[in-house]
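# nightly structure sweep
# worker-07 picked up a monomer target from the shared queue
# config: single-sequence mode, recycle default, output format = structure tokens
# input follows
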Amino acid sequence: MMNALTLFDNFMNDGCSVTPDFNFTTSVPEVDVKEDKDAYTMKMDLPGRSEKDIQLELDHNVLTISSRHEEKKEEKSPDTDKSSWLIRERSSSEFSRSFTLPDDVKAEKVSADFKNGVLSVRIPREAPVEPRRIAIEAA
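# output follows
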């Protein structure tokens, strides 16, 4: 007895030039970092992702930005009540980047937002500690 999967296998094996596209991506997005007297600002383009796909962690002055995203492309047979999967393709990508921050950051004030596929991280700076003169007392 021949079923739909057998027909699909025969189609693939009978000289059809269709090749599965294994697209497991581990590319790392580039980041722009701007410095001014009050803060460092990082911007990273993450098209196709949402804020739910992104994790930020700050631990001992190391900021880690990571993400895992999975896209699904599904094709169904026309009769949705009696359908069975013949093709179900997935594409997945993930990355992790870590940045050692300078000592002058206010770790508790770091903030992030995600808008139109761009992650923006604002890292406020503390005013630099100015050297001071220490008076020497006579004994």
